[in-house]
Amino acid sequence: MSLKDRQPLLMRRVDEPEWRRCGRRVFLDAAADELAGRQVYRYASLAETLLWLRQGRSGFARPATWPDRYERFVAERLWTPEGPLARVGAWLKCLSFEFGSEALWRTYAGHGGVLRIGLRLRDLVAELNRLALPRGARVMVGRCRYLDERDLHRALERLSARLQAGEDPLPVAMQALLLKRSGFAWENELRIAVLCPDSEDPPTVMPVEGLRPDRLQSVEIDPYLPAWQAAEWQAALASLGDWPGRIRQSGFDAEPAAARR
């Protein structure tokens, strides 16, 4: 797999994803399926990481709760009480194909640092097929499409028209949820969506259970934390059980000679 194959999907107009069924209820974007053997990464808080490692749990959030104004605009355009997706519940989890991004380490660090947990995409799909989800729910996994703001608005209008024409709302909803401004292309994002038809009064966060910690391939600690803090995190995480994932502090901020070892 060449470096070019995992570059962000920068576009002038939204494409029509090809969805491949993977198991009982998971549908995978063909553009992501080509990277199924690669790791995908979640830049997560310590609390989120501990929840996955200790209890096999995670949470998916409604897009209307996200801080980016344009992503909220997409949600408000389609998911208002009068909108075409008013009765479709949607909850997302965002990951990335970027394993060495200074911007991602800095963006998600917060006040207490961040961890980067990674697993192969095909293993993630296997985990998603094991989840206990509401009846009729569909899981869709796709790569974000990055467009300039004007092109994004045009794409959203076309998707809205398709919904008004009576198309199957779930794949169209997922297309809308994969739209991002080109200024965020450095995120190189993969999105997992749990979509539920005929959803009434959806909760802000959907908890999911049954994730297996031994599926994780790597856990890396914030490269900008002092070494003594990273050592404490490493010891705490390693004490949770005998699982094969590698736990270490990222060498992203190491001295060049040390980084080569």
UniProtKB/TrEMBL annotation:
This is DUF2971 domain-containing protein. It comes from Pseudomarimonas salicorniae.
